[in-house]
C-alpha cells in the first residue's frame, strides 16, 4: 500500500512535467489507492495504438472497481474532446521506459529495476494480481470497519467523516516553485517630469487654475513632452505607460485652442474636435475630465456612445457640440444617418487607446470616419494616404511629407476656424504594427513621442513598460483549487487594499462569480460556529438574518461586463469609483483607459488573451505614481507565462497560495487550512446544486470559459493550451459536480439539471432511445447565447466582423 501511495505521488509529479511518460504507473497506483477521480490527464493506450491527445478516466469506474471487491484489469476511458470511447488494459499495457528521475524513483518503490526492459510486462501482471487484489480486499475491510464506526457515531460526526474523503484532499500537493529571474531589470519610465509646471505652459490661466483645483500642478513626463507639440499643431503618435496622464496631453491643448477663437464659438459652428475612444466607460470618463477643466461656458463638450438613446444624442448634436467624445460605432452611425451632424468644421481628431480600437475590430469604422471627415476638406487625397500607408512598419515618417501635404502649420488648425487642415493625435500605452499602419492612414506625417527616454527613436520595441510602483505577483494553483483560492485571496487582499479589479475571461464567468460571492462569500458569518469542515451546510440558513451574524467582508462587490445594460454599466462604474472599499468583477471591457485613482489591486483570474492585455489590466492600478499590487492566477500547466513575460522585461514574483488560504481557517472556523478550504468548496458546491439558477449560471460560466480558453492569441496558445487542460478539474473550479459533457448538455438544454448522470452507458443509451421514440422531435432552440455583441454601435447588424467573445 505504501508503495502505491509513493508511486502516486511520483506519478503526479511526472504528469505535471512529463505528461504521458508513465501512464501505467498511474493506473496501477490509482487502482490501489482509489484515487482515480483525482488524476490529472494522461496518455493511454487506445486499443493497440497510443492515444493522441488526452484521455480522462471516468470517475464512476473507481467505485465499480472497488465495490465488488475484485480488481479491475481494465478501465473505460472517454476522450473529452472527441467523445471517443476507449479502454485501458492494465495487464496488457507495457511500461514505457522513460528514464526520468521520477520514474526511476517510482519503479524503485515497487521493487523494480530502474530501467525496465525485462520488467515491462511482468511487473504489471504480477503486481496487479497479487498486490492490487490484496490491496482492494484490505481496503474493503477498512471501509467496512469505517462504515460500522460511522453507523454508531453521532450524525454530526458522520458528515464530518464523509467530508474528509472529498476528492480535493487527494490533490492537495506541495506548492510548485517556478523559476524566476530575480535579477531581471524592467524598463522604468518616470511618471512625473522633474520640474515643469502647468504654469510654464502657454495656456489660458483659467485652465491652469482649474487644473490646480483638482491637484494637478506638475506635468507628467508625457505631458511635458507632448503638450507643446500638440499646441503647435503637429500630428502626433504618443506612447507612454498606463496611468501617466495621456488624456490631459490632448485635452489641455484642445480646450486652449478652442477658447482662443475670436469671435467666440457659437453652437451653430458645430463639431470642431472629435475624440474616439473604444468603450462607453472611457467616453464617460473623458467627458468628465473635460468637464473638470472647462470653465468656458460657450464651449460645449458632448458624448455619443452605444447603448444611449439615439434620439437624445441627435438632439444634442442638433443643438451643437464643439468637442465630441464618442465610441466608433455610434459615431459612424450618426455621421451616416443624422443630418444635423456636420463634420465640415472638424479640425482635430484624437484616437485614444488606439491599440484597443484596432483589437476590437474598429479599423474599418475608423477608416470610414476619417474618410467622412476628410471628404469635406479640400486637402483630402485618398491616393496619397494609401501610398503612405504601404510604408514599412517603423520607417521614418519624414519622407511622406514629400508626397502629401503636411498637416503641421505654424498655428494649430483648431485655432483657425477657416483652416481646412486636420490635426490628428493617436495615443496608446502599447505600440503594435497595427498602430503604425493606423497612424499612416490617418495622418499625413507625424511626430512620435515616447515618454520613456530609452525608446525615443526605437518605435517597434518588444519591451513592455509597467509602472514600477506596482508589485507584480503570480500564484500557482491546482485547477480544482481555483475557486476557494480566489475566495481566500479576496478575503485577505481586502485587508490591505481598498479597491480591487478582478479580471475574468467572460461575462458569464463574471455573472456567476458575482452571484456566488455576493450571496455566500460576502455573507459568510464569522461567529456562526456551525461551519466546520465536516458540516453539511444548510444553505438557505445562510440568508437568515440572525442577530449574532456579522459580515466578514467589509467590502462591496460590483460587476461590469459588455453584456450588461448600458444604464447598469454606467451606474456600476460610478458606484465603484465612489465607493470606499470595493471589488469589481469584470471582463476586459474595463482593462484599458479606465481610471479609478484609488484602485490598488488587480487580480487576473484568467490569463490575458494577448500579451498587451496583461499590461493594460495591471495598468488599472499604480496610476499617476501611486502604488499597487497585481496578481495573476496560473495553473501548473500555465507556468511558462512567467518566462514569457520576462522576455518582455516584465518580472513577476511568486506568491504562495497558502499565504492567502489561511484566511479560510477564520471564516470556516477550522484550524486546518486544507480542511477549511474543502469545507468552503463543499459549501459552494452545495449552494450551487441546491439553487437552480445558480447551477445554470455555473454551467453557462463553465461553457463560456471553455470557449474563452480556445481563443488565446497564437503566441499565448502554447501556454494556455486547451488541449492540455483537464476539463473535469475546471468543472470543479465552477463548483459543479457533473462531468464536463453533462454540463455542456445542460447548457444546450439537452438535459435538465435534475436528470441523474448517466452512470451506465448501455442503460442510459437505451433509455434515451425510448424517450426519443415517445417524445415528438422538438425544434432545437439555442437556449443560451454565449456570444454577445460587446460594444453595440446601434447600427443595424450586417455581417459578423470578427469572432468576438462575450467579454
Ligand atoms: N499632471 C498630473 N498630476 C497629477 N495627476 C495627474 C496628472 N495628469 C494626470 N493625472 C492623473 O493620472 C491618472 C491617469 O491619467 P490618464 O487616465 O490620463 O492616464 P493614461 O496615460 O491615459 O492611462 P491609460 O493608458 O491607462 O489610459 C488620472 O487619475 C489623472 O487624474
From TrEMBL:
It comes from the Eukaryota. It catalyses: ATP + H2O = ADP + phosphate + H(+). Keywords: ATP-binding, Helicase, Hydrolase, Nucleotide-binding, RNA-binding. Residues 196-224 form the DEAD-box RNA helicase Q domain. A motif (Q motif) lies at residues 196-224. One of its GO terms (molecular function) is ATP binding. Residues 63-82, 91-104, 764-773 have a biased composition (Basic and acidic residues). Residues 60-125, 138-164, 759-807 are annotated as: Disordered. Its EC number is 3.6.4.13. InterPro entries: DEAD/DEAH_box_helicase_dom, Helicase_ATP-bd, Helicase_C-like, P-loop_NTPase, RNA_helicase_DEAD_Q_motif, SPB4-like_CTE. Residues 797-807 have a biased composition (Basic residues). Pfam families: CTE_SPB4, DEAD, Helicase_C. It is an enzyme of class 3 (hydrolase). Residues 227-449 form the Helicase ATP-binding domain. Residues 489-665 form the Helicase C-terminal domain. RNA helicase. Belongs to the DEAD box helicase family. The Q motif is unique to and characteristic of the DEAD box family of RNA helicases and controls ATP binding and hydrolysis. This is ATP-dependent RNA helicase.
Amino acid at each position: 500500500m505504501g508503495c502505491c501511495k509513493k508511486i502516486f505521488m511520483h506519478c503526479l509529479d511526472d504528469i505535471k512535467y512529463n505528461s504521458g511518460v508513465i501512464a501505467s504507473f498511474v493506473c496501477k497506483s490509482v487502482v490501489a489507492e482509489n484515487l482515480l477521480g483525482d488524476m490529472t490527464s494522461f496518455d493511454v493506450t487506445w486499443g493497440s495504438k497510443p492515444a493522441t491527445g488526452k484521455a480522462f478516466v471516468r470517475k464512476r469506474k473507481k467505485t465499480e472497481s472497488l465495490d465488488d471487491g475484485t480488481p479491475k484489469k481494465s478501465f473505460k476511458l472517454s476522450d473529452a474532446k472527441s467523445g471517443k470511447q476507449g479502454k485501458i488494459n492494465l495487464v496488457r499495457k507495457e511500461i514505457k521506459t522513460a528514464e526520468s528521475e521520477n520514474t526511476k524513483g517510482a519503479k524503485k518503490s515497487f521493487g523494480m529495476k530502474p530501467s525496465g526492459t525485462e520488467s515491462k510486462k511482468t511487473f504489471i501482471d504480477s503486481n496487479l494480481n497479487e498486490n492490487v487484489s490484496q490491496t482492494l480486499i484490505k481496503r474493503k475491510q477498512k471501509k467496512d470497519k469505517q462504515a460500522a464506526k460511522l453507523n454508531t457515531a453521532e450524525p454530526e460526526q458522520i458528515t464530518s467523516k464523509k467530508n474528509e474523503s472529498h476528492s480535493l484532499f487527494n490533490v492537495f500537493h506541495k506548492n510548485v516553485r517556478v523559476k524566476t529571474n530575480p535579477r531581471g531589470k524592467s524598463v522604468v519610465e518616470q511618471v512625473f517630469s522633474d520640474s515643469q509646471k502647468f504654469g510654464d505652459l502657454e495656456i489660458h490661466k483659467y485652465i491652469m487654475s482649474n487644473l490646480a483645483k483638482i491637484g494637478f500642478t506638475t506635468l507628467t513626463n508625457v505631458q511635458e513632452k507632448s503638450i507643446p507639440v500638440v499646441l503647435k499643431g503637429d500630428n502626433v503618435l504618443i506612447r507612454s505607460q498606463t496611468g501617466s496622464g495621456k488624456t490631459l496631453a490632448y485635452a489641455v491643448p484642445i480646450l486652449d485652442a478652442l477658447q482662443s477663437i475670436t469671435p467666440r464659438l457659437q453652437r451653430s459652428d458645430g463639431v470642431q474636435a472629435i475624440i474616439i475612444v473604444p468603450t462607453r466607460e472611457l467616453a464617460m470618463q473623458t467627458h468628465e475630465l473635460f468637464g473638470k477643466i472647462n470653465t468656458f461656458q460657450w464651449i460645449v463638450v458632448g458624448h455619443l456612445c452605444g447603448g444611449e438613446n439615439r434620439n437624445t444624442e441627435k438632439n444634442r448634436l442638433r443643438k451643437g457640440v464643439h468637442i465630441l467624445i464618442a465610441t466608433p460605432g455610434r459615431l459612424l452611425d450618426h455621421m451616416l444617418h443624422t443630418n444635423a451632424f456636420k463634420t465640415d468644421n472638424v479640425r482635430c481628431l484624437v484616437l485614444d487607446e488606439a491599440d484597443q480600437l484596432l483589437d476590437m475590430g474598429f479599423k474599418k469604422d475608423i477608416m470610414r470616419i476619417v474618410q467622412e471627415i476628410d471628404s469635406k476638406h479640400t486637402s483630402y487625397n485618398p491616393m496619397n494616404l494609401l501610398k503612405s500607408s504601404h510604408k514599412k512598419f517603423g520607417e521614418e515618417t519624414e519622407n511622406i511629407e514629400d508626397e502629401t501635404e503636411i498637416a503641421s502649420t505654424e498655428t494649430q488648425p483648431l485655432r483657425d476656424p477657416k483652416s481646412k487642415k486636420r490635426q490628428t493625435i493617436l495615443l496608446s500605452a502599447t505600440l503594435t504594427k497595427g498602430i503604425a499602419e493606423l497612424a499612416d492612414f490617418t495622418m499625413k506625417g507625424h511626430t512620435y513621442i515616447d515618454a520613456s527616454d530609452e525608446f525615443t527613436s526605437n518605435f517597434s520595441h518588444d519591451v513592455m513598460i509597467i509602472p514600477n510602483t506596482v508589485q507584480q505577483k503570480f500564484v500557482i494553483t491546482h485547477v480544482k483549487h481555483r475557486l476557494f483560492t480566489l475566495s481566500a485571496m479576496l478575503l485577505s487582499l481586502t485587508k490591505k487594499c481598498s479597491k480591487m479589479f478582478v479580471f475574468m475571461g467572460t461575462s458569464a464567468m463574471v455573472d456567476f462569480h458575482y452571484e456566488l460571492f455576493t450571496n455566500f462569500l460576502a455573507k459568510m458569518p464569522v461567529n456562526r460556529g456551525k461551519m466546520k469542515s465536516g458540516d453539511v451546510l444548510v444553505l438557505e440558513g445562510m440568508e437568515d438574518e440572525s442577530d449574532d451574524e456579522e459580515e466578514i467582508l467589509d467590502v462591496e462587490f460590483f460587476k461590469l461586463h459588455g453584456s450588461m445594460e448600458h444604464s447598469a454599466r454606467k451606474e456600476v462604474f460610478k458606484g465603484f469609483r465612489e465607493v470606499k472599499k470595493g471589488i469589481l468583477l469584470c471582463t476586459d471591457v474595463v482593462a484599458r483607459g479606465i481610471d479609478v485613482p484609488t484602485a490598488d489591486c488587480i487580480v487576473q483570474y484568467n490569463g490575458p488573451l494577448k500579451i498587451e492585455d496583461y499590461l493594460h489590466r495591471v495598468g488599472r492600478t499604480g496610476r499617476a505614481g501611486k502604488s499597487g499590487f497585481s496578481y495573476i492566477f496560473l495553473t501548473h500547466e500555465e507556468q511558462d507565462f512567467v518566462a514569457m513575460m520576462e522576455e518582455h522585461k516584465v518580472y513577476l514574483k511568486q506568491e504562495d497560495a497558502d499565504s492567502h488560504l489561511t484566511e479560510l481557517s477564520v471564516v470556516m472556523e477550522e484550524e486546518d487550512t486544507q480542511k477549511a478550504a474543502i469545507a468552503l468548496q463543499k459549501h459552494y458546491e452545495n449552494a450551487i446544486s441546491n439553487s437552480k439558477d445558480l447551477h445554470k449560471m455555473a454551467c453557462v460560466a463553465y461553457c463560456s470559459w471553455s470557449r474563452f480558453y480556445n481563443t488565446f492569441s497564437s503566441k499565448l496558445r502554447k501556454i494556455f493550451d486547451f488541449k492540455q487542460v483537464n476539463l473535469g478539474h475546471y468543472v470543479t473550479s465552477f463548483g459543479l459536480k457533473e462531468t464536463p459533457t453533462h454540463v455542456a448538455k445542460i447548457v444546450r438544454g439537452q438535459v435538465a439539471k435534475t436528470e441523474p448522470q448517466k452512470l451506465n452507458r448501455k442503460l442510459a443509451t437505451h433509455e434515451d432511445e425510448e424517450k426519443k421514440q415517445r417524445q415528438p422531435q422538438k425544434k432545437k432552440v439555442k437556449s443560451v447565447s454565449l456570444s454577445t455583441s460587446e460594444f453595440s454601435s446601434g447600427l443595424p447588424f450586417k455581417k459578423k466582423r470578427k469572432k468576438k467573445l462575450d467579454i
